[in-house]
Design brief:
Blueprint: H1 13-16, H2 22-32, H3 36-43, H4 50-57, H5 78-88, H6 94-107, H7 125-141, H8 145-157, E1 165-166, E2 172-173, H9 175-186, H10 195-209, E3 226-227, H11 233-242, H12 251-259, E4 268-269, E5 272-273, E6 285-286, H13 287-300
Parallel strand pairs: 3-5
Antiparallel strand pairs: 1-2, 4-6
Helix pairs in contact: 2-3, 2-13, 5-6, 5-7, 7-8, 7-9, 9-10, 9-11, 11-13
């Protein structure tokens, strides 16, 4: 794995660096090429994108997005917009801080987890919490006591014997929940890491690596990589790689499934899109999916 580009049929880097998509160009310079000076120059152009300007124009004075501040998880609500701004590489500022504050005020349950409704446990609690912690940390709230309580919730909740037992997954281990929790714990501040959190990571990683996948049936959609990112095989392997599981012998066959999806130019297709904020077209080469594939390969190198 020392030369991860050897796993590509061709090098798509020049395509990713095209100026038409300043966000992908920025992330390519940061995550793939390690060229921070050029990356900062590229980041300055992200705020000029029409989509970014449109998103901030829709923000309410109180910091939220959508028609109801108390319901941040609607398709065009606070959470969806913040997640998109995070994905696009928008720099943290007072507007993103206000949005994060609104999100936390109206979705964090007293136990520390994020819920569709603040006052009761609704939605997929560990999934909802873990999935959004990296965004909150990137937007500068890593030291916020509310975010630290959310990290503690994920660790504590995932120590339960039935932590991954989800009614939406027919009371089997919820692999989506494992991905989301691993994503969240990858952003866990160093001073909060402990033997207990590491044990949780091992448990979640084993759930993903030992799963009985049926890629011709039940898990067929795991090979359809969406934009924005969703819980799929590429997301699962990126979550595992973030915790150092690339060398695990169980990892290789799953990686082969992802590599087989690239085209002759070393690009991956967009399999699904957001109807609210469509960034790319289905069944066309996707810069967003491709850069995630390259992030994965570089992480395991």
């Amino acid at each position: 794995m020392s030369e991860w580009r050897s796993l590509l049929k061709a090098d798509p880097t020049d395509w990713l660096l095209e100026p038409q998509n300043p966000s992908v160009r920025y992330w390519t310079l940061v995550d793939i090429l390690d060229r921070p000076t050029e990356a900062q120059e590229a980041r300055a152009t992200i705020a000029q994108q029409p989509l970014v300007q449109e998103l901030f124009a829709k923000q309410h004075p109180g910091g939220h997005w959508g028609g109801d501040e108390t319901k941040p998880m609607t398709a065009d609500g606070t959470l969806g917009v913040l997640g998109l701004l995070y994905m696009l590489g928008v720099e943290p500022d007072a507007r993103t801080a206000a949005g994060c504050d609104s999100f936390l005020r109206f979705c964090q349950n007293e136990c520390g987890g994020f819920s569709m409704v603040k006052t009761r446990c609704s939605g997929i609690f560990p999934c909802t919490t873990g999935a959004h912690l990296p965004m909150l940390v990137t937007f500068g709230l890593g030291d916020d006591p509310r975010v630290r309580r959310a990290f503690e919730f994920v660790v504590t909740d995932m120590t339960r014997d039935d932590a991954l037992d989800c009614g939406r997954y027919q009371h089997r281990d919820c692999l989506w929940g494992a991905i989301a929790a691993l994503d969240g714990l990858a952003a866990l501040p160093e001073e909060l890491r402990s033997p207990r959190s590491e044990a949780v990571v091992r448990r979640l990683a084993d759930a993903l690596l030992d799963a009985d996948y049926d890629f011709e049936g039940e898990h067929r959609r795991w090979l359809t990589f969406g934009v924005p990112r969703v819980w799929d095989l590429l997301g699962a392997l990126r979550a595992l790689a973030a915790h150092g599981y690339g060398p695990d012998p169980r990892f290789g066959p799953l990686l082969g499934r992802v590599l087989a999806r690239q085209d002759e130019q070393g690009r991956w297709l967009c399999g699904s899109v957001s109807h609210t904020w469509p960034l790319e077209k289905r069944n066309r080469p996707s810069k967003w999916v491709t850069i995630d594939a390259l992030r994965l390969l570089k992480a395991i190198a």
